[in-house]
Amino acid sequence: MGWFSPDIQTVEELFLHNLQDIYYAERQIEKALPDMAAKASDAELKNGFNTHLKQTKGQIKRLDRAFKMIKSIPQGTKCPAIDGMIEEANEIAGEVADKMVLNAALIAAAQAVEHYEIARYGTLVSWAKLLGRPNVAKLLAMNLKEEKAADKKLNAIAKRKINRKAAARKRPRPDELERAENAFLTATAGLPAI
Ligand code: ZN
Ligand code: FE
Ligand code: FE
Ligand code: FE
C-alpha cells in the first residue's frame, strides 16, 4: 500500500494497518531469533535471544487476541522496515570474523529491532486508547513492556561485558601472523604427521 493509495482513510484503518505491520514483523522476528541465538557465542546473550523467542511467541498470541477483539482476522502486511533490519543483520554477521565482535554486532542489530517494536507498539497503544479500545491497548502495552525490558537487558549485557570484550580484539598484524606460523612450524618440527 502506498502513501497516496486511498485504502487507508481513517485512524481506525491506519490502526489496523499498523497492527498487521507489527504482526508481520513479529513473525519475521520469530523466524530470525533462533539464528541469532545460534550465532551468539556468549551464553548469557544466547539465553537472552532464546528467552525473547519465547516472549515473541506470546506476543504473537496477544496480537491474535487483539485482532479478534476488533473483529478482524489475524493477518500480516509486509513490513519493509523489519525485512531490511533482518537483512542488514545477516549481512553484517556474515562479514564479522571475530566471535566477540560478532556478539557486539548481534546486540546492535537486536536493539535496532527492539527500538522499532517499541516505536510501533507505543503508537498502537495510544491509537487503541484513542479509538475507545482500552482492552486492546492493555494487550499491546504488555508487548511494549516486554520489548522495553528486552532492550534494557541487551543494553546491560553489552555494557557489562560484550562491548569491552569486543573492543579488546585487534586485527592480527601480518608480521604477527607470520611469527605465529613460524612458531607453530618450529614446535611441530620432527613430530609425526599424524
Ligand atoms: Zn502500506
Ligand atoms: Fe516483539
Ligand atoms: Fe513496518
Ligand atoms: Fe522484541
In terms of topology, how is this protein built?
Layout: H1 11-39, H2 43-69, H3 80-95, H4 99-130, H5 134-167, H6 174-188
Query: By CATH's scheme, which homologous superfamily applies?
Result: Ferritin, core subunit, four-helix bundle
By secondary-structure content and strand pairing, the structural class works out as: mainly alpha
Instruction: Give the number of helices.
Output: 6
Top CATH class = Mainly Alpha
Integer tally of domains = 1
Query: Low-confidence parts lasting 5 or more residues at pLDDT below 50?
Result: none
Helix content: over 70%
How many extended strands? 0
Q: Would you give the CATH topology?
A: Ferritin
H/E series, N to C?
HHHHHH
Mean pLDDT: 93
Radius of gyration: 22 Å
Distance between the termini: 64 Å
β-strand percent reads under 5%
Please give the largest β-sheet: none
Question: If classified by CATH, what would the architecture be?
Answer: Up-down Bundle
Approximate shape: elongated
Report the bound ligands by name, code or SMILES. zinc ion, fe (iii) ion
Summarize the structure.
The protein has a single domain (11-188), classed as Up-down Bundle (Ferritin). Helix content is 79%, strand content 0%.
Structural write-up:
The chain has 194 residues and is mainly alpha-helical. It has a single domain (11-188), classed as Ferritin, CATH 1.20.1260.10. The protein has six helices and no strands. It has helices at 11-39, 43-69, 80-95, 99-130, 134-167, 174-188. 26% of the residues are buried. Residues 26, 29, 56, 59, 117, 147 line the site of one fe (iii) ion.
